[in-house]
Automatic annotation (TrEMBL):
<dbReference type="GO" id="GO:0072659">
    <property type="term" value="P:protein localization to plasma membrane"/>
</dbReference>
<dbReference type="InterPro" id="IPR018619">
    <property type="entry name" value="Hyccin"/>
</dbReference>
<dbReference type="GO" id="GO:0005829">
    <property type="term" value="C:cytosol"/>
</dbReference>
<dbReference type="Pfam" id="PF09790">
    <property type="entry name" value="Hyccin"/>
</dbReference>
<dbReference type="GO" id="GO:0046854">
    <property type="term" value="P:phosphatidylinositol phosphate biosynthetic process"/>
</dbReference>
<keyword id="KW-0472">Membrane</keyword>
<keyword id="KW-0963">Cytoplasm</keyword>
<protein>
    <submittedName>
        <fullName>FAM126B isoform 6</fullName>
    </submittedName>
</protein>
<comment type="similarity">
    <text>Belongs to the Hyccin family.</text>
</comment>
<keyword id="KW-1003">Cell membrane</keyword>
<dbReference type="GO" id="GO:0005886">
    <property type="term" value="C:plasma membrane"/>
</dbReference>
Length: 208
């Protein structure tokens, strides 16, 4: 890791720690302008022996637990890389280097499975009924079809659950690893349109 990259990361670490709560919103709005920061953070994450890895993981978690959505998205962009490095280290049985990344992934998972009141969340969506008007159609315009308005009125809105209740996890095991990582990818996918190109490249590397 180059000295300039190290300086950029260390400055970012100290900068956020000294930030008062009143300036978090303005800090989140300007974070994307730090063009050298993201590549430097990728280099830290990819090097499991880097002494900055643990403080970086800790700070990424602090950003994620913030109420500022732009700070959460900043952490989310590194999720594919974090998962790829975690899986690589798991295969190599390098548990010592894996600890802080594992803690970060589990921390994000445990935050996301519960709502702000601490109740477990059920992720779902509703399939709209064609018998109800929407911005796309009027029920009367489909009256001549085989599915008449009267027939459609017999069908209620359908609620589809795509992620049921998940338990809290304190550690990864062979039994829960796939479940936790799959749920984390759901979180990433929910904000994928906000991710920068570097995050998409990382996602492709992980997938391949």
């Amino acid at each position: 890791m180059l000295g300039t990259d190290r300086c950029v990361v260390e400055e970012w670490l100290s900068e956020f720690k000294a930030l008062p709560d009143t300036q978090i919103t303005s800090y989140a709005a300007t974070l994307h302008r730090k063009k050298t920061l993201v590549p430097a953070l990728y280099k830290v994450i990819q090097d499991s022996n880097n002494e900055l890895l643990e403080p970086v993981c800790h700070q990424l978690f602090e950003l994620y637990r913030s109420s500022e959505v732009r700070l959460k998205r900043f952490t989310l962009q590194f999720l594919p890389e974090l998962m790829w490095v975690y899986l690589r280290l798991t295969v190599s049985r390098d548990r010592q280097s894996n600890g802080c990344i594992e803690a970060l992934l589990l921390g994000i998972y445990n935050l996301e499975i519960a709502d702000k009141d601490g109740n477990n969340k059920v992720l779902s969506f509703t399939i709209p009924s064609l018998s109800k008007p929407s911005i796309y159609h009027e029920p009367s315009t489909i009256g001549s079809m085989a599915l008449t308005e009267g027939a459609l009125c017999q069908h209620d809105l359908i609620r589809v659950v795509y992620s049921d209740l998940h338990p809290q996890r304190e550690t990864f095991t062979a039994q829960n690893r796939f479940e936790v990582l799959s749920f984390l990818m759901l979180c990433y996918n929910s904000a994928i349109v906000y991710m920068p190109a570097s995050s998409y490249q990382s996602l492709c590397r992980m997938g391949s």
